[in-house]
Design brief:
The structure holds 2 protein chains of 2 kinds.
Chain A (H helix, E strand, L loop, with lengths): L2 H21 L2 H5 L2 H13 L7 H7 L4 H31 L1 H7 L4 H29 L7 H30 L2 H17 L12 H8 L2 H15 L3 H28 L3
Chain B lengths: L1 E6 L6 E6 L4 E5 L6 E5 L6 H6 L2 E12 L3 E12 L3 E5 L6 H8 L7 E6 L2 E2 L4 H7 E4 L11 H11 L4 H14 L15 H11 L7 E5 L7 H16 L3 E6 L2 H7 L2 E6 L2 E6 L1 H8 L2 E7 L4 H13 L3 E4 L10 E7 L2 H14 L6 E5 L3 H9 L12 E2 L6
Parallel strand pairs in B: 7-12, 7-13, 10-11, 11-12
Antiparallel strand pairs in B: 1-2, 3-4, 5-6, 5-8, 8-9, 13-14, 15-17, 15-18, 16-17, 18-19
The chains are: A mainly alpha, B alpha+beta.
The structure holds adenosine-5'-triphosphate (ATP) and magnesium ion.
């Protein structure tokens, strides 16, 4: 496999998806609706959590909105990741996928082009969330550099989570399944992690689950960047969690895509 | 040069002539001096056949879905370089399945196929470099413009930017989409989309082009456009493999064809061969409505003419017509002899028509089913055959 050829293939496909997105900008906001509703309603309804002393002790902030920003970012990433799989299913349905598959390009290029465009979309969406966060009074302790790190983690986690959506899309080639698998996994994982509530305030069994839940580590990295500044070990853990998810999900997607031509 | 033995239609004298493929020559019978022209039908010469290079060889190809759906059932055929090869069959015959296997989109269950010597399984990458494919469901991106779609295909084939731009302009012009080039496909009609799809399968200049039902659902004008374009490509040397549900299309475009039904090839050959195998030609003779006498006279006369299989009753069963129908194997030759015989006996007639069997009839005879009800039309031609 010629590396330069593959790179140009990925760029073409990346650009294609970006163009599609620019022409339907509504899609950017579509994925944002749910995280936004949460951001506005949830934080208003549960703002009293911030007054609990043990919450303040565990998180280092008395603002539930600030703490919850990490959860909203994660929700934005996962809900955005959903559409990457849906896009592939559309391509299968329209026959465009066959067109790509008969072309002399690598299967991985088709997937990576999609994933990178998904990552870019997610960064834009998270940027919107952060701006709204500012409007809600959220401050980011780690400043500009911290925001850039948030974007990098966003892109990487976006790719890793999109991998799952791609895997479902490639195996089922079905819109509904791809959509529901994405929706059904997000909520339990979010609530069974340290994203909505600090670990220490969770029941024992939930804590056990949360410790093997990648959302926990990503959430903690975001929380620390927003509330405390730079805690490199948290970022490291997040990267490791993302790497594990990413290698598995993207690897599995490439494998089924290569194999599944019958 | 090929040596061909002919029989003089008049005196049955054996004549040996030298002809080139496709060449039309004037022959005079040395015995009775009858003159006639002769064109060597390329497809009928076995010698010629073996000389042609096969670009696509399919042997015992089978495909089963979910263990028990036999979509393609042990088919074998060869496509010669430079020809248009038709794959004709009704819904669910296995046309798309076959084309998808050949274009590396689907894994075969068993059998073997090579394209230009490359194995479709073991050498997928090489195969993909030399094929073009236009799917049944048009594979274009509706959010992009026509130009962007084609440029994207160029990128997929690693064509350098400058060259790609030129190529795209050229293709847009040929498929008459240059005016609509920068419009998004959302606003395109089905015919425009199909033309664009065809263009997009051509960016790499494939050696062999696979078209899956290129005209299904198109209006007559759009269909004609696609036909013209396919013929033009073929003239430029491109081999074309196309599937169709339309007899008329196969008859019009294909040099050779397979008829496929329920995963099996039920017949293959040139359209003329297939028609010949099955059908007899029909010559219809009409007289003045009140001239019953001439009709009866002609009937008696034609009975004696060698080469005629059956002569029908006078009257044709229609009140408004006075005439009869003659069935024969070799319509165009018989046509002339019928005219001569009637002339010699001074029998005057109003009209003489020759109808050759359509592929519809061939299909009906082979499978016991009609292909498409709407499309059925008899190819009625005053004199001679198209091919
Ligand atoms: N993915 C699949 N899974 C199961 N069965 C299939 C699949 N694809 C095709 N078939 C079956 O295989 C048979 C042949 O289908 P195919 O699409 O090749 O027909 P076709 O000749 O292209 O028909 P049409 O003119 O409708 O396009 C049909 O009975 C169809 O139901
Ligand atoms: Mg089909």
């Amino acid at each position: 496999m010629n590396f330069m050829e593959m790179l140009s293939e990925i760029v073409s496909i990346f650009n294609r998806w970006n163009k599609k997105l620019v022409r339907q900008p509504i899609l950017i906001f579509f994925n944002l609706i749910q995280p936004l509703v949460w951001f506005l309603l949830f934080t208003q309804a549960f703002s009293a959590i911030g007054d609990i002393p043990s919450f303040q002790l565990l998180t280092g902030t008395s603002s539930y909105v600030t703490f919850f920003t990490a959860a909203v970012i994660i929700q934005t990433i996962t809900s955005s990741a959903l559409s990457s799989g849906l896009g592939l299913v559309t391509d299968f349905d329209s026959g465009f996928m066959d067109k790509m598959r008969v072309a002399p390009i690598s299967k991985s290029s088709i997937l990576f082009g999609r994933l990178f465009s998904a990552a870019l979309t997610t960064i834009i969406q998270v940027a919107i969330i952060i701006v709204i966060g500012f409007a809600l009074g959220v401050t980011i302790a780690s400043g500009m550099v911290g925001i850039i790190i948030i974007f990098i983690l966003t892109a990487l986690f976006g790719i890793a989570w999109s991998g799952i959506s791609l895997f479902v899309a490639l195996t089922t080639k079905n819109q509904e399944t791809t959509l529901s698998v994405g929706l059904l996994t997000t909520f339990p994982l979010l609530f069974l992690s340290a994203a909505v509530m600090p670990l220490g305030l969770l029941p024992d069994w939930v804590q056990q689950v949360a410790k093997v839940n990648p959302f926990t580590y990503v959430a903690q990295a975001f929380q620390s960047l927003i509330i405390n500044g730079f805690e490199w070990d948290k970022i490291e853990y997040a990267l490791i969690a993302i790497l594990i998810v990413g290698v598995l999900s993207v690897g599995a997607s490439i494998m089924v895509f290569r194999k599944k031509i019958s | 040069m090929l040596e061909v033995k002919l029989e003089c239609p008049k005196c049955k004298n054996q004549i040996t002539i030298q002809v080139k493929q496709g060449e039309k020559i004037l022959i005079t019978c040395p015995k009775c001096k009858t003159q006639g022209t002769f064109t060597l039908p390329t497809e009928k010469s076995v010698q010629q056949e073996s000389k042609k290079e096969d670009i696509l060889i399919v042997e015992h190809l089978r495909k089963t879905f979910d263990k028990d759906i036999l979509a393609v059932d042990n088919i074998s055929f060869r496509v010669h370089k430079g020809e248009i090869f038709g794959f004709l069959g009704p819904n669910g015959a296995g046309k798309s399945t076959t084309i998808k296997i050949l274009t590396t989109l689907l894994k075969k269950t068993s059998g073997k196929a090579t394209i230009d010597g490359f194995d479709i399984d073991a050498q997928q990458a090489q195969v993909r470099r030399i094929i073009g494919y236009s799917s049944q469901d048009v594979g274009v991106d509706n959010d992009l413009t026509a130009r962007e779609n084609l440029l994207l295909q160029c990128q997929f084939h690693h064509i350098p930017k400058k060259k790609a731009k030129k190529k795209v302009d050229e293709l847009l012009k040929t498929v008459k989409l240059i005016e609509a080039a920068d419009r998004r496909l959302k606003t395109f009609s089905g015919g425009m989309r199909k033309r664009l799809d065809l263009a997009s399968s051509l960016v790499s200049g494939p050696k062999i082009l696979f078209l899956d039902e290129p005209t299904t659902g198109l209006d007559p004008q759009s269909r004609q456009d696609i036909w013209d374009y396919v013929i033009k490509l073929n003239r430029q040397g491109m081999t074309i493999f196309l599937t169709t549900q339309y007899m008329e299309e196969a008859d019009h475009l294909a040099n050779r064809l397979c008829i496929i039904d329920q995963g099996k090839i039920v017949a293959q050959g040139t359209p003329a061969e297939l028609k010949e195998k099955i059908g007899t030609d029909k010559i219809k003779l009409l007289f003045k409505i009140d001239d019953v006498e001439s009709c009866e006279k002609a009937r008696k006369l034609l009975f004696k003419l060698p080469g005629i299989e059956t002569v029908g009753e006078c009257g044709l069963g229609l009140v408004s017509e006075n005439g009869l129908t003659i069935m024969t194997k070799n319509g165009s030759a018989m046509f002339v002899r019928v005219v001569r015989a009637l002339d010699e006996e001074d029998i005057s007639f109003e009209q003489l028509t020759l109808s050759v069997p359509t592929l519809d009839e061939v299909f009906l005879k082979l499978t016991g089913k009609t292909l498409d009800v709407i499309e059925r039309k008899k190819a009625v031609k005053p004199v001679g055959r198209r091919r």
